[in-house]
Amino acid sequence: MMKQDVESGTTLESVTAAIQCRDVCRSYGKLRVLNDLNLTVLQGQIYGLLGPSGCGKTTLLKCIVGTLKISRGHITVLGKPPASPGHGVPGRMVGYMPQDLALYNEFTISDTLWFFGRIHGLSGKETQTRMQFLIDFLDLPQKSILIRKLREQKCDLWIWARLRNTALDTLIWQHLVEIVKDGQVSVIITTHYIEEAGQAHVVGLMRNGRLLAEAPPDALMTQHSVTTLEAVFLQLCESSDQTGHKPCTSSPQDLRTEDSQSSEGSRDESRPILSEAATSSTQDSELTPDWKVRAWHITPKWRNITALMIKTMVRMKRLPGFLCFQFLLPVIQISLMCLCIGGDPRGIPVAVVNNETSGDFYSRTLLSFLDNSSIQQVELSHAEAFAGAYDGQYWAIIGFGKNFSSYLMKRILQPRVTRDIVEGGSVHVWLDLTSEFLLWLRSSFHQKQENFTLASRWRFFFEEPIYGTKNTDFTTFVTPGAILSITFYLAVGLTALSFVLERKEGLLDRCCVAGVSCLETMLAHLFSQLFIISVQISLMLLFIFLVFKVPNEGPLVLVIALIVLQGVTGITFGLVISAAIDDEQSANQAALGVFYPNLIISGIIWPVECIPYPLRYLSLVLPQTYASEALRCIMYRGWDLSRMMVWRGFVVTLGWNTFFLVLAMVILKLRT
Ligand SMILES: Nc1ncnc2c1ncn2[C@@H]1O[C@H](COP(=O)(O)OP(=O)(O)OP(=O)(O)O)[C@@H](O)[C@H]1O
C-alpha cells in the first residue's frame, strides 16, 4: 500500500494525513471557486475550516467527500482519491452534515436515524444502539415526533437540542474530542463564525478559494500577537491584499507549531489510517482483483435501493391526502376526457325564419330532418332573428323563401332552371363562425343537404365495419393516446419535482456522501414511482372499461404492459429533467413545455396523417406516436405482439426508457 502511494507520487505525509489537498482547483463555469488550495488534515485531528460566506468551504468539502470533481490538483482521503473504485469515500468511511440540515420533513426522528444508519451500512442492531445513544446524548424528544413538527416550532433537531441543553456546545466538543482520540477518526468543521472553532486542533483560514493559513489556533494568535482568530484573519486578509494574492505561500507546514509537528513525528507511520472496518475493507479490496472492485463499485446495492424506496413510501404514507390525490388524478382526467370530449353539442339555439306560407311545406320536412337534439329551433321573423343573432342569442339563422317547396321541386325535376329558382329553392344559412362548435353545425348542414338532395338519386351503403363499431366517435379515437399521455405526464411531474426538491434541500448530497450511487437513486425512484403508477393505471382502466365502456378487443395484459412502460418513460424523462435542472420552477416549465407539442405532434388528438411532412418525421420518433397507435391496434383491432404495429410501439417505448435512464445518469454524473 505504501509502495503504491510512493509510486503514485504521494509524499510520506499522505500516509499519516487523513485528508490531503494539493493545488486543488475547482470552477463552476467561469467562476473559479478553489484556487490552488493546499490543506492537510492529520489523523485524529479536529480541523476547523474557517472563512467568510462564499469563499468555497462547501465546494471544498464536496470535493473531499467525492461528490464533486476537482478541475485540477490532487486530493487524497484515507490514502486514496475520493470516489475511486472500492474506496469507502463517499460511503461508509465518511459522514457529512451539510449546513442546511437536509432532513426529510415527513420523517420521525427514529425514521431519520434509521434511514441514515441504513444507507451508511449499519446493521439494524448497530442502528438501534446508535439511535439510543444519540437520543440520550442530544436529549431528543420522543422518537415518533415528526421533523416537520420540530420545524414548525422553528426547531430543527440541532436547535431543539441546543434549546434543551445550553451546555450542548461543550458536550458536542467533548464528544468530538472523544471520537478522534484514538486517531481513527478525523473531523472537519466549517463555519463562518470564526471564533466558534477555537477549540479545534488546527484551523485553516480560507479566503477566495485559498488557504491563508493553517495551524493550531493558539499558534496563530501568538504568531500574529492578537487574542482572537478573527483578528488573525483580518491581518492575513490585509497582508494578502497588499501582496496581491499570494498569502498561501507561507506554507501550512510553516505555520504548524512544534507540538503539531512532533505529534506528527511521533505518529507510528505504519499505523493504519482507517478504522478497523475500513482497514479490513481496504485490505480486502487490495486482495481482490481490480475488475472485481470496479464491478462491486458500480453494481447497485439492494440495501441502498430498499432504504431509498422505504423512505419514499414512508414520506407518501405521511401525506395521505396527497397520495389519494395522486391515485385519483388520472381517473379524474380520463373521466373528464370521456365526458367532455367527442360528444355532440346539445341545445344550440338556432333562429328559423320560415317565409313559406303555401305549398307542400318541404321546409318543415327539412327542419324535422335536422339533428333536433343538438339544435333548439326558435321560429322568428327576419328582423327578430338577425337582431337576436347580432346580440349573441342565436348561433345560426336558417331561412326559407316564400316559394321554397315549389322552387325546390322545379330544381329537382327540371334539368335547367333560372337563377331565381335556384335561390328560392335553397335553404339560406347564416352562421356565427366564431366557435369551433359552429364548424360542426356547418358540416352538419352540409351533410343534411347532401342526404336531402342525393337521396332520390344514389347513396352509399355502409356494410358492417371491418374493425370498430358503426357508432364510433372521436372519444374512441382519442382514448388510447389520452391514457398514455396522462400516465406519461403524471409520472414526469412526480419524478421531476421530487428529485429537484431533494437536491435543493441537500438530501441528495447527503445520500451521495453516504455512498448511494446515481444509479441506486434512479432505480429507487423508478421502483417507488412504479408502485404509484400501477395503482393509478389500475383505477384508470377500471373506469375506462367498466364505467365508460370503452371497448377492448385485445389481450388485457398487453394493454397494461404498454401503459406501464409508458409510465416508466414518464418517470425516466422526469429523471432527466431533475438531473439537468436545479429549481422547481424551471423543472415545472420544462415538464409543461413539452406537454402540448408532444400531445399535438404525437397524433394523440388528431391523426398523424394530417401532420405536414417535415413535422411528421419528428412525430414518428416521439415516444408516444407509435405507442398510441399500438394501443389503438390492441384495444380496437384485437391485435397482439405478432403484428408489427403493436411490437413497434413496445420497442420504441423500451428504447426511450433506456435512453432517458442512461441520459439522466450521464447528466447527473457530469454535473457532480
Ligand atoms: N453549483 C454551483 N454553481 C455555480 N456556482 C456555485 C455553485 N455552488 C457554489 N457556487 C458558487 O461558488 C462560490 C463558493 O460557494 P460555496 O458554497 O463553496 O461557499 P461557502 O464558503 O461554503 O459559503 P457558505 O458558507 O455561505 O455556504 C459562491 O460564489 C457560490 O455562489
Automatic annotation (TrEMBL):
<keyword id="KW-0067">ATP-binding</keyword>
<feature type="transmembrane region" description="Helical">
    <location>
        <begin position="556"/>
        <end position="578"/>
    </location>
</feature>
<dbReference type="GO" id="GO:0016887">
    <property type="term" value="F:ATP hydrolysis activity"/>
</dbReference>
<dbReference type="InterPro" id="IPR000412">
    <property type="entry name" value="ABC_2_transport"/>
</dbReference>
<feature type="transmembrane region" description="Helical">
    <location>
        <begin position="477"/>
        <end position="501"/>
    </location>
</feature>
<feature type="transmembrane region" description="Helical">
    <location>
        <begin position="530"/>
        <end position="550"/>
    </location>
</feature>
<keyword id="KW-0812">Transmembrane</keyword>
<dbReference type="InterPro" id="IPR003593">
    <property type="entry name" value="AAA+_ATPase"/>
</dbReference>
<feature type="region of interest" description="Disordered">
    <location>
        <begin position="243"/>
        <end position="286"/>
    </location>
</feature>
<feature type="domain" description="ABC transmembrane type-2">
    <location>
        <begin position="442"/>
        <end position="671"/>
    </location>
</feature>
<feature type="compositionally biased region" description="Polar residues">
    <location>
        <begin position="243"/>
        <end position="254"/>
    </location>
</feature>
<feature type="domain" description="ABC transporter">
    <location>
        <begin position="19"/>
        <end position="233"/>
    </location>
</feature>
<dbReference type="InterPro" id="IPR013525">
    <property type="entry name" value="ABC2_TM"/>
</dbReference>
<dbReference type="InterPro" id="IPR027417">
    <property type="entry name" value="P-loop_NTPase"/>
</dbReference>
<protein>
    <submittedName>
        <fullName>Uncharacterized protein</fullName>
    </submittedName>
</protein>
<feature type="compositionally biased region" description="Basic and acidic residues">
    <location>
        <begin position="255"/>
        <end position="271"/>
    </location>
</feature>
<keyword id="KW-0472">Membrane</keyword>
<dbReference type="InterPro" id="IPR003439">
    <property type="entry name" value="ABC_transporter-like_ATP-bd"/>
</dbReference>
<feature type="transmembrane region" description="Helical">
    <location>
        <begin position="645"/>
        <end position="668"/>
    </location>
</feature>
<dbReference type="InterPro" id="IPR047817">
    <property type="entry name" value="ABC2_TM_bact-type"/>
</dbReference>
<keyword id="KW-0547">Nucleotide-binding</keyword>
<dbReference type="GO" id="GO:0005524">
    <property type="term" value="F:ATP binding"/>
</dbReference>
<dbReference type="Pfam" id="PF12698">
    <property type="entry name" value="ABC2_membrane_3"/>
</dbReference>
<dbReference type="GO" id="GO:0043190">
    <property type="term" value="C:ATP-binding cassette (ABC) transporter complex"/>
</dbReference>
<feature type="compositionally biased region" description="Polar residues">
    <location>
        <begin position="277"/>
        <end position="286"/>
    </location>
</feature>
<dbReference type="Pfam" id="PF00005">
    <property type="entry name" value="ABC_tran"/>
</dbReference>
<dbReference type="GO" id="GO:0140359">
    <property type="term" value="F:ABC-type transporter activity"/>
</dbReference>
<keyword id="KW-1133">Transmembrane helix</keyword>
<feature type="transmembrane region" description="Helical">
    <location>
        <begin position="590"/>
        <end position="608"/>
    </location>
</feature>
